[in-house]
């Protein structure tokens, strides 16, 4: 049983100690002391844990835990300093996602514990080689890219720019690398795949990247891979990860995009004709719009009505790098009280947009009338 | 004179103390002790400062400074703990940008000092109401969005999602708000501007947002604003900020987009016809491409050759929120050894792409053959 005292860091510590004592004597085996508004600082957090362990007579019968928010950018340091003071549990989140500025970032805490084991003398059983892939998957689900300077998982996290550093790393890795890219599961592009690569090479690479796939999945992903090879000169590991993780997150559905034809420009209204496949038959219609995305979505609306749907948000970002980068679109669509996120991925940003919208509509169709309450992502309390 | 000892936190402290003493006696008035690889932890950083102030006989003749990297997510906490131990200078960066996982984030340090003045008893002369705008401008220049959960400046930083928190904030702001949105310069949308707003209303709003504009600039931005009103139902503060800060960063140039006409789809090659204005005359051509962006760029290439240019990177993201969100495209283009970033902004993602590419070409044209060495953004050492 876990007992959690919201806003513990700003509470009266003496009163809090009496509450904690009572919680433990009533059966709480974990005592969570959240820094609900991200107000505390590392030294204070350590003091709080030490205070409780000293003042609460039955403190040894429970594990102390912290739940830190990142409003002033110190959630990771606050969590780690709690561990140094004797906390045995940290509540954190992949990529630090959470209410407002978020919670302590799981991957940063894990790597700080591993890298500074000499100092903290604490450990956890997280397999660090899964951190990179897990982070990408979670960012993918919410339709966001890792910030390039995000510790551990950002594109620049292991990139040494300055000449003197590069020289140092080449001479002796430990000069500037306190942890290796491999330790967090970042693989190098050892083999470049392209249009002449066969299914076995693709399957082997996916396995190297950590994906355990069924035969049907391999077949489906390989088709996507071949299509991508027609559009990109070389397909990198991050492209393959993007295909697989986006498909895993997106699933299948009622409608499938067969064809679209777009006419657009800055002096004309945009026009988009869309063909959708639905249960074996082809639906087709055309629509005008303000801009190409609006025209395409209007055409999809005509084919999939009735029109109680509302597009709440449209976000686009590029996933891989270079001239033929993959674009990923995330749309948030509301229908009555149901709210879903759809995602689409393509080297063609218009196709990515249409795929995302269809994905959202498929999710709504699958849901049926199941939800009569608003469905929205709930980020952590306390 | 500032003396900086690279990788100070991992050095032999005793030896370091002797080096620092010598630097001060030779005239150094600032002693910088960088945590070059982001290895240290708050307690240790405080110890280092205290150690130097105690062991270096002439320590009182210099200001101690730290320069923290964020590899383990603790740059802000490490910097702040140095202040608590007597450091008088912090080297940090807007948005925490810097090599690898970056440096300590200026806005987080400033707000931590202000918010926890009771604890740190230190201050700085930064005008906090400029933090939000400065952050957006810097993100804009590098073509990046603030991560939604970035402390202080992210879209969610002040958004209370959970019901109990919202109730608390309504009852008493201080319950969950340790700092106000206004204190970092986040203004509320008090007045919505639209197609019936005049130039004076626009100018007043820009002034409220902190932009001091010349008459010519007001005229130019107002035209962009009116065009945006044709495409968006309402124009928000963040739209206006996006228009102005993107224009300020992008400048003017040799080529201007007059018109484009695009045909695209998933079963046909894309075609794009482009008209550019160059010194009063109109150039026009059409090109095929793999996808709409590629076709448009090929057409621009035909009009602006010779073709030693290479597109290194293409990145797109949405700036404002909602159905008619602004898209911003950043392209990195190389010509010989010159390398530039171009940016384009529009509610039409195709137009944003073409504008970004033209912006890059204009920058190259303006440069001429001035640079024979590679120009690339240099992020901070040590």
From TrEMBL, chains A, B:
GO terms for molecular function: 2-isopropylmalate synthase activity. Residues 1-132 form the Pyruvate carboxyltransferase domain. PROSITE patterns: AIPM_HOMOCIT_SYNTH_2 (PS00816), PYR_CT (PS50991). Keywords: Acyltransferase, Amino-acid biosynthesis, Branched-chain amino acid biosynthesis, Leucine biosynthesis, Transferase. SUPFAM superfamilies: 2-isopropylmalate synthase LeuA, allosteric (dimerisation) domain, Aldolase. The keyword Acyltransferase applies. Pathway: Amino-acid biosynthesis; L-leucine biosynthesis; L-leucine from 3-methyl-2-oxobutanoate: step 1/4. One of its GO terms (biological process) is L-leucine biosynthetic process. Its EC number is 2.3.3.13. InterPro entries: 2-IPM_HCS-like, 2-isopropylmalate_synth_dimer, AIPM/Hcit_synth_CS, Aldolase_TIM, LeuA/HCS_post-cat, LeuA_allosteric_dom_sf, PYR_CT. It is an enzyme of class 2 (transferase). This is 2-isopropylmalate synthase. It comes from bioreactor metagenome. The gene is leuA_46.
């Amino acid at each position: 049983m876990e007992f959690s005292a919201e806003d513990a860091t700003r509470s009266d510590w003496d009163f809090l100690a009496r509450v904690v004592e009572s919680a433990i004597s009533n059966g709480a085996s974990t005592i969570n002391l959240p820094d609900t508004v991200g107000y505390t600082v590392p030294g204070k957090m350590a003091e709080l844990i030490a205070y409780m362990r000293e003042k609460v007579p039955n403190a040894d019968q429970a594990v102390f835990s912290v739940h830190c928010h990142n409003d002033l950018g110190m959630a990771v340091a606050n969590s780690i300093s709690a561990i140094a003071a004797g906390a045995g549990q940290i509540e954190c989140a992949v990529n630090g996602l959470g209410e407002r500025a978020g919670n302590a970032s799981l991957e940063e805490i894990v790597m700080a514990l591993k890298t500074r084991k000499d100092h903290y003398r604490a450990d956890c059983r997280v397999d660090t080689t899964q951190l990179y892939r897990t982070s990408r998957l979670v960012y993918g689900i919410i339709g966001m890219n890792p910030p390039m300077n995000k510790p551990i998982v950002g594109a620049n996290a292991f990139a040494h720019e300055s000449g003197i550093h590069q020289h140092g790393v080449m001479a002796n890795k430990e000069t500037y690398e306190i942890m290796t890219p491999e330790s967090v599961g970042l693989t190098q592009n050892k083999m470049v795949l392209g249009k002449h690569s066969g299914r076995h090479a693709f399957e082997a690479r996916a396995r190297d990247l950590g994906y355990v796939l069924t035969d049907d999945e391999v077949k489906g992903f390989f088709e996507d891979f071949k299509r991508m090879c027609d559009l990109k000169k070389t397909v990198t590991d991050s492209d393959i990860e993007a295909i697989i993780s986006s498909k895993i997150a997106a699933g299948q559905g009622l409608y499938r995009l067969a064809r679209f034809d777009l006419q657009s420009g800055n002096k004309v209204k945009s026009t988009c004709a869309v063909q959708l496949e639905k249960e074996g038959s082809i639906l087709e219609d055309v629509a005008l719009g303000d801009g190409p995305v609006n025209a395409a979505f209007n055409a999809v609306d005509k084919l999939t009505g009735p029109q109680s749907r509302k597009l709440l948000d449209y976000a686009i970002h590029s996933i891989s790098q270079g001239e033929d980068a993959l674009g990923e679109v995330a749309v948030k669509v509301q229908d009555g009280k149901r709210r879903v996120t759809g995602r689409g991925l393509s080297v063609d940003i218009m196709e990515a947009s249409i795929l995302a919208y269809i994905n959202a509509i498929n999710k709504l169709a699958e849901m049926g009338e199941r939800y009569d309450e608003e469905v929205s992502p709930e980020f952590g309390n306390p």
